[in-house]
Amino acid sequence: MADVARLAGVSSQTVSRVSTGHPGVVEATRQQVLAAMKELGYRPNSAARALKRGEFRTLGVIVFTLATTGNSRTVEAIASHAAREGYAITLIPVAHPTQDGVLGAFTRLGELAVDGIIVIMEVHLLDTANLTLPVGVPVVVVDSDAGTRYPVVDTDQADGARQAVRALLDLGHPTVWHVTGPAESFASERREKAWRSVLTAAGRPVPDLLRGDWSAESGYRAGRRLAAVPECTAVFVSNDQMALGVLRALQENGRRVPDDVSVIGFDDLEDAASYLPPLTTIHQDFAEVGRRCVQGLLAQIRDQGGEPGTELVPTTLITRASTAPPRS
């Protein structure tokens, strides 16, 4: 900065004002300083400036996997909304969801200097005392049952599942089979419990559960089993990718959708409307989840909130061509 000031014939304070975009600089002087910066290859040291004011304009994101639709879409939304607020994000993947893994990620983010951290916790880990997060760091958690300990933002998993099951019962199906996700997944558990509770409350039989791993291939394996059950006329699948596999298996085994079997998914992927047939599904508003995460974290950073509790983002049933009343 001193070199730029000497070359431009101004004070270091004027150089500082130009580098920060301060409006109180005469335009001719500003251009003179900018020319000196260009000639010397000078770039303002944002890290030093951040240390001086104690604000880094960066949010950390800890995530256990980007392979699932929910996680990848949520990270995308967080990055987008952070940018609108003038923040960058630093993403730290954690290979193993353990206490050591999460604490290691917090340590790395501390070294990289972030203002707050969003933890995308797809698995059951914060739900018990098995894992605690460092105190004194602004934190928002996504997709977890830890609302009594941390601020949590999540899709209303249970209500989405209830909408799906009730829609199939309202069409006249005697019961609804379910292809769920991994046992360790919080979202999978919430959707499974809601499926079971709706059937029980309606006095309908609860079929045996079929478990997948979120992939289309696991949905295909479950669909082959369902195709061999003549009384199966309706299936709620815990995500759209597994639903794609279910659709393929049913079609290959002579069970037409929706004439013989109705299918509802969960997520509302961009491709869901192009499935054959177009998939009836539960829409998750990932953009809103990301927005609320960023706003909640910024509120903590600015000392305007951050109490424990769960904020649920509503879901919507999107009706397409994969559902119909059962044949007489």
Explain how this protein is built:
The chain is an alpha/beta fold and 328 residues long. It folds into three domains: 2-44, 434 Repressor (Amino-terminal Domain), CATH 1.10.260.40; 56-155 and 286-312, Response regulator (Rossmann fold, 3-Layer(aba) Sandwich); 157-284, Rossmann fold. 42% of the residues lie in helices and 16% in strands. The protein contains eleven helices and twelve strands. The chain has helices at residues 2-8, 12-19, 27-40, 46-53, 69-84, 99-112, 157-170, 186-201, 216-227, 240-252, 286-301, and strands spanning 58-63, 88-93, 116-120, 139-142, 151-155, 177-180, 210-211, 234-237, 262-267, 280-283, 309-313, 316-318. The strands form two sheets. Strands 2-1-3-4-5-11 form a six-stranded parallel beta sheet, sandwiched between helices. β1 (58-63), α5 and β2 (88-93) form a beta-alpha-beta unit. α5 packs across α11 (286-301) and α9 packs across α10. The model has no long low-confidence stretch (mean pLDDT 89). Keywords: DNA-binding, Transcription, Transcription regulation. Residues 1-53 form the HTH lacI-type domain. It comes from Paractinoplanes ferrugineus. Pfam families: LacI, Peripla_BP_3.
What gap, in angstroms, lies between the N and C termini? 82 Å
Q: What is CATH's topology name of the largest domain?
A: Rossmann fold
Number of domains: 3
Query: H/E order of the elements?
Result: HHHHEHEHEEEHEHEHEHEEHEE
In CATH, what is the homologous superfamily of the largest domain?
A: Response regulator
Biggest sheet, spatial arrangement of strands:
2-1-3-4-5-11
Q: Judging from the principal axes of the Cα atoms, what is the shape?
A: elongated
- What is the CATH architecture term of the largest domain? 3-Layer(aba) Sandwich
- Proportion of beta-strand residues: 15-25%
Instruction: Tell me the name of the CATH class of the largest domain.
Output: Alpha Beta
Number of strands: 12
Kindly state the percentage of residues in helix: 40-55%
Mean pLDDT over all positions = 89
Q: Give the low-pLDDT segments.
A: none
Q: Tally the helices.
A: 11
Rg (C-alpha, Å): 26 Å
